[in-house]
Amino acid sequence: MSRPKPPILNAAAAALLCLAAHPGHAQFLTDMDDVIHVELLEGWREAAGMHYAGIKIELAPGWKTYWRAPGDGGLPTIVDWEGSENLSDVEILWPRPQVFHAFGMRSVGYDDEVLLPMHLEAEDADAAINARINLTMGICKEVCVPVSFSLNAVLTSESSVAATPIRTALSLRPRKVDAPLDCSLQASADGYQLTVATQFAALAGEEETSVVELASPDIWISEPDYLRAGDRVTATVELRPHHDGASIDLDTLRMTVLTNQSAIELLGCD
Q1: What is the CATH number of the domain that holds 92?
Q2: Taking a C-beta distance cutoff of 8 angstroms, is the pair 202, 248 a contact?
Q3: Residue 190 is part of which domain span?
Q4: How far apart, in whole angstroms, are the C-alpha atoms of residue 118 and residue 94?
Q5: Residue 2 counted as domain residue
Q6: Which residues contact 33 (CB under 8 A, 6 or more apart)?
Q7: Which residues pair with 31 in a beta bridge?
Q8: 43 and 94 both lie in a single domain
Q9: Residues 195-245 pLDDT 10s
Q10: Is 79 exposed, middle or buried, given 0-12, 13-18 or 19+ CB atoms closer than 10 A?
């Protein structure tokens, strides 16, 4: 069995393939304003310093960007909050993504438009959060490029901006399901093979598939071999530690099962 490339190399290879196949589109790289628009929506403050905000991303027709687990054909989205004030914690609450296939690789993400809701926690519940966001993300059409944005906003306890679209995006998150995950890990020629089995009824929609994630960024995870037999599903993936000593913690495993209409999330191996 040949050893798969790490995901960042696969994504870079996809970008090079795009550029080689469509050299005339290199001119698109000169003006990203025609391709993508990003803005920070202020949202609203709840009790105990909990604040909801959003990052709205609008893409030109045919372009796409990526989910938190982008797949081998995607580029990771990185959000850096360094320099923010009165902020103790933040979490992006990712809406249900789509699955794309190109150049023999799978990617997971969004096209057209996506709003990424964020849950922020203020250190001082009554004071404003001075949000400083450095956003780096990949976007693809015939070419694939990384782009970066700096977003700044003062999020106050009186904020009530864009509540409706943020709430709509929150409603599109994968639904958490409390079903046990039976996990089997064994050594393989190039690393490890992990099989995750569980049981639940088929989801609404078509093209049911899954994404398996671990908390550690030091473990590459392949596209799953996903099978359903009645209510029982199994997802088998290959794991490749990026370096010796990388820990495989199955307690942090997250499996997202999705179709073109719905998604659920299951957490932690039994």
Answers
A1: 2.60.40.1250
A2: no
A3: 175-267
A4: 8
A5: no
A6: none
A7: none
A8: yes
A9: 999 999 999 999 999 999 999 989 999 999 999 999 999 999 999 998 888
A10: middle
